Amino acid sequence: MTTLVLTVVGDDRAGLVATVAEIVGAHGGNWETSALAELSGAFAGIIEVSVPATRADELREALSVLEGLLSVAVHAGAVSSGRDETGRRISLTVLGNDRTGIVHEISSALGAQGVSIERMSTETRDAAMAGGRLFEATVVARVPAGVDVADVAARIERLADDLQVDVALED
Length: 171
Hints:
Blueprint: E1 2-11, H1 16-26, E2 30-39, E3 42-51, H2 56-63, E4 71-76, E5 88-97, H3 102-112, E6 116-126, E7 133-143, H4 149-157, E8 164-170
Antiparallel strand pairs: 1-3, 1-4, 2-3, 5-7, 5-8, 6-7
């Protein structure tokens, strides 16, 4: 089997996921992992599929018929992730007043300690009682062996006085 990673973007409308899934299935592919979202009227996603190696090019070609409906890019999946699986996996929840640059600051603080982000989702929303906007991020990351998880949380909390960080270990 060959792994392909698809990125899809287009105007949101009903049936987009079903259309992609139908093409993948019709070409012997298996939908493995995905993250899909509607953002400001656009549909965006990243999808990992496995397909028999002999049918990978056929699937690539079939997905090209979606042009106009969805922009689809097909990337070859890595044979080996090359990712260091040692260390500990953590979940971080970051909540605070929204401001420019917060994602850059969080990701830079994690990267400076060798922490690798595996998944991250963010959103902003109105602060119900206080007014203004709130920023919330959920991050799943891998902390290398030898790095103290408490130090990771403290470094993010130091980014701003108004950030709250909850850390949970995933074993």
